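Attaching the record inline, Q. Sequence:
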Amino acid sequence: MRKKLLTEGAKELSYEIREIVKKANQLKALGLKIHWENIGDPIEKKCQLPQWIKDIVGKIVQKNPSYGYCPSKGILETREFLANETNKLGGVQITAEDILFFNGLGDAIATIYGLLSMTTRIIGPSPAYSTHSSAEAAHAHASPLTYHLRPENHWLPDLEELENKVKYNPSVAGILIINPDNPTGMIYPLDYLQKMVELAKTYNLCIICDEIYNKIVYNGAHAYSLAEYIGDVPGISLNGISKQYPWPGARCGWAEYYNRDKDPEFNAFCRAIDNAKMIEVCSTTIPQLTIPEVLGDPRYTEHRQTLNEKIGRRSSLINEILSDVPELYFNPTYGAFYNTIVFKKGVLNDRKTLPIEDPKIKSLVESWVKNVPSLDYRFVYYLLGATGVCVVPSSSFCSELNGFRITLLEEDEDELRLVFTKIRDAIKAYVKSAK
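Structure, as predicted:
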C-alpha cells in the first residue's frame, strides 16, 4: 500500500474469550467433547427467561413503531424510567437527558475511548475486561494503563499503587471501576469506592464505572451503584440488559452521565459522545421499549433473585471443589458470574504437561504450546486437550498473573461438579508431571 493502514494501537485489539473457541472447535471436530467455560452467555448455558418477559417482547414486536428509528439518545419514556430508578438511590440526581443508549456496552466502550485525546489515559483494573483494556490501549497507541487487583487480598485494588500512578502520570484523566468485577467476581466494599472517588476529586479526574453486573450479586453481598457514592465528581455509569434479564443478543446498553455541570471539559466530552451516536442515527429500538415494562414489573425482582440464588449456589459448589487446592489463589465470588483462579508462583513451568490419549489431539495441542505468550496459555491448552474443559487464560486479561477464568453459568449441577472436578484433578496431575 502507498501508506501504512494499521494504527499501532491495533495490536492491543484481542479477545481471547472467543479466540479459544477456535481451538476448542478444532478439537471438537476430532471427536472431543467440549465443556464450555469461556464466555458469559447465560442463554448458551440454557438459562430460561420466564414466559412473562417473552410475552412483553412478543407484544412489543407486534406494534409497527417498534420497527422504526428511535431518537438518537434513546426512547424518552425508557430514559425517564431509568433516570427515576437512579434518582431513587438517593445519590446524584439525573434527568433523561443524562442517558444515552448504545448497541451494547461494547459500542459504548468503543465510542467513549475513541473520543479521548490520544494523550489522555483512563487507568483501569488488572486483571482487566478485554473490551475496556483493548479499547483504551488502542486509542492511546500504547499498552493499557492499569492498577492491580490483588488475589492475595480478595482481589481488592492496591489503592496506594493507584494513587502513585495517578499522581506521577499527568496523562491520567479518569479511573475505570468494574463493579461487580469481570473477570474476578469481586465486589468493591463501599470504603474502597469512596477512597477511589476521593482520589479522583483530589487529582481532578472523572470516574467511569461499568455496572453491567450490578444486579447480579449473591451469598449475602451488595453492590453499590456509582450514583450512590460519586458525590460531585464527574462520572459515567455503564449498564445494560444483556446480563440483567438476561438478553445478551439484544445488544442494548446505556450510559448515564453524572455531574456534567461540574466541569466544562467533561460536559463537552459527554456532548461529543451524544453527537457520535447522532451521526450513527440511533441504537436498536425494540430492546429499549421492553425496559420499563420488564424492569418495572413487580415480578422482575423475584426473577432476578432466583437467578442470583442459583449463581450463588454454583459459586459455593466451585468453592467446595477448588478452594483447598494448595497451588492456587482461590477467592469465592459474590458478584457477576466469573471467577479468576491464579496459580501461585513457581507452579507453572514449560516442563509440566497433561496426558492426552488421542494422538491427533495430542499433536495439535503440542503444536499450540510451542509459541505461547505466557505459561497459563500452555496450561489452558493442555487442559482443553486432556479434559475438553475450555477456560480462558488470566494473562489474556491484561495481567501478569498466570491462571484462568471460569464462569458460574452451568445450569446442570451434575455437569458443574464434573467440570470442576476435572479441573481440580487436572491441576493435581499437572503439578506431578514433568517432561
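Residues 8-47+301-432 form a domain with the Aspartate Aminotransferase, domain 1 fold (CATH 3.90.1150.10). The chain is about 40% helix and 15% strand.

More tomorrow.
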